Q: What sequence folds into this?
C-alpha cells in the first residue's frame, strides 16, 4: 500500500527517422519516400492518435499534475512547428502541467532548422537534447549519421541561443576509434559549455544492422581506458556524473530521467511507448503497439493501443525498483524503497547482504547506493535483486 503517489511525468514517442542508424535498437521507423505528405508520415493523423491515447489514460491519473514532459523518438524534430505546437496545446488542454515543468525534445542536427526550433521554443520546449554522437566526420559516416561535424556545431550554437538547457549526446568506443579521437570528441563538446552531457558506450544490440554486420570496435579494456579518461575530463570541466551515462553542471540534472530512475510514474503515449502508473493499492506497467500504422489503426478503432497492461507483483517490485535506482551514482535514501514500492525494506535484506559481501553496495545503511565496484559491475548488482 502506497501512502503517497510519486511525481508524474509524460513521455511522447515520435517513431519516425529520415534514416535508421545501424546501431539503433529503439522503436524507430525510416520514413517512406514518395509519401503523399511532406514529412514522409501523416503528422495530422498521428497527432490525433496521440490526443486520443492521452485521453484514454486520464481516468488512471485524475487529479495529478505533470512535472516533466519528454518528446523522444525516432526523430521528434521531424514534427512541423505547427504540429509540435498542437501537441503541447493538446497536452495542456487535457492535463494540468506545472508552470515550471521541464519540457525536453530530442533532435538530430541532420534535421535541424533554426526557424522551426525558434517556434519549438515559443511553444514551450525549454530543454533540447541533440544527438551529436561524434564531431569526427569519418566516425559519423561509420555510425550511419546523416549530419556532419559542421552541422553539429551549427545546431549546438543555435540551441544554446534558443533553449534554457541543452544536452549533447556523445558516444565512445566507436568503430576503429582511438583514445585520442575519443578525447578530441569530448573536448569539442566541452568547448560549448552546455549544461548537460550524456556519454554512451557504443554497444552492438541484437536486431540491429551492426549486430548482423559487426564493425571493428575497441575491446573492453580499451573502452574502460576511454571512459576513465573521458570522466576525468568531464570532472575537470565541472560536470558531475549523477547517473551511469549522465553528466550535468550543478542544478541541471535531467528531471524527467531522474523521475524514471527514482521509480516515479510516467504516462507513455505514442507507438511503442511504455508507461508506469501507481495507485495506492497497485503499480501497473503499460505497453503500446510498436508499429505506427498498427498503433493508429488500434487507437481509432478502440480508443487505445495497449498490447499489455501488467500489475507488478510483490516479487517484481524489488528488482524493478533497484534496476532503476542503482543507476544513480548517489543512490536513493533507504526509506524511499517503502514509499515507492509499498514494501518493507526487509523484503530485500537477503540481496542487500549478498551485495555487501561482494562489495557491490555501499555500506551506509541510510542509502541504497552502488559502490564504486558496483557501478563497474552494475548488471551483476542489479541481478542480485531478481527473484
A:
Amino acid at each position: 500500500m502506497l501512502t503517497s503517489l510519486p511525481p508524474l511525468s509524460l513521455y511522447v514517442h515520435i517513431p519516425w527517422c529520415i534514416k535508421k542508424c545501424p546501431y539503433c535498437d529503439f522503436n524507430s521507423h525510416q520514413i517512406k519516400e514518395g509519401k503523399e505528405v511532406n514529412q514522409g508520415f501523416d503528422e495530422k493523423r498521428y497527432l490525433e492518435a496521440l490526443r486520443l491515447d492521452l485521453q484514454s489514460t486520464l481516468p488512471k491519473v485524475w487529479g495529478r499534475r505533470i512535472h516533466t514532459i519528454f518528446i523522444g523518438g525516432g526523430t521528434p524534430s521531424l514534427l512541423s512547428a505547427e504540429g509540435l505546437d498542437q501537441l503541447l496545446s493538446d497536452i495542456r488542454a487535457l492535463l494540468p502541467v506545472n508552470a515550471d515543468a521541464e519540457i525536453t525534445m530530442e533532435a538530430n542536427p541532420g534535421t535541424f532548422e533554426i526557424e522551426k526550433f525558434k517556434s519549438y521554443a515559443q511553444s514551450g520546449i525549454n530543454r533540447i537534447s541533440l544527438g551529436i554522437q561524434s564531431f569526427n566526420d569519418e566516425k559519423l559516416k561509420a555510425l550511419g549519421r546523416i549530419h556532419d561535424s559542421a552541422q553539429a556545431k551549427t545546431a549546438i550554437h543555435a540551441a544554446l541561443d534558443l533553449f534554457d538547457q541543452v544536452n549533447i549526446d556523445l558516444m565512445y568506443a566507436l568503430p576503429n576509434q582511438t583514445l585520442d579521437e575519443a578525447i578530441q570528441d569530448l573536448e569539442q563538446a566541452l568547448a560549448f559549455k552546455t549544461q548537460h552531457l550524456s556519454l554512451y558506450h557504443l554497444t552492438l544490440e541484437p536486431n540491429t544492422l551492426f549486430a548482423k554486420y559487426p564493425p571493428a570496435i575497441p575491446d573492453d579494456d580499451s573502452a574502460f581506458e576511454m571512459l576513465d579518461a573521458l570522466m576525468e575530463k568531464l570532472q575537470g570541466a565541472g560536470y558531475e556524473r549523477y547517473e551511469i551515462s549522465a553528466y550535468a553542471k550543478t542544478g541541471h540534472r535531467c528531471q524527467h530521467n531522474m523521475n524514471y530512475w527514482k521509480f516515479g510514474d510516467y504516462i507513455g503515449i505514442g507507438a511503442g511507448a511504455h508507461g508506469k502508473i501507481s495507485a495506492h493499492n497497485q503499480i501497473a506497467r503499460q505497453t503500446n503497439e510498436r508499429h505506427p500504422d498498427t498503433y493508429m489503426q488500434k487507437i481509432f478503432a478502440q480508443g487505445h493501443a495497449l498490447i499489455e497492461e501488467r500489475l507488478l507483483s510483490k516479487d517484481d517490485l524489488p528488482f524493478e525498483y533497484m534496476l532503476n535506482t542503482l543507476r544513480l551514482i548517489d543512490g536513493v535514501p533507504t526509506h524511499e524503497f517503502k514509499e515507492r514500492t509499498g514494501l518493507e525494506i526487509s523484503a530485500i535484506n537477503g540481496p542487500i547482504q549478498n551485495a555487501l559481501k561482494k562489495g557491490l553496495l555501499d555500506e551506509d545503511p541510510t542509502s541504497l547506493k552502488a559502490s564504486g565496484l558496483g557501478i563497474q559491475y552494475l548488471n551483476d548488482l542489479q541481478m542480485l535483486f531478481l527473484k
Notes: The radius of gyration is 21 Å. The domain at 315-387 is CATH 1.10.10 (Arc Repressor Mutant, subunit A). DSSP finds 15 helices and 16 strands in the chain. The CA atoms of residues 325 and 347 lie 16 Å apart.
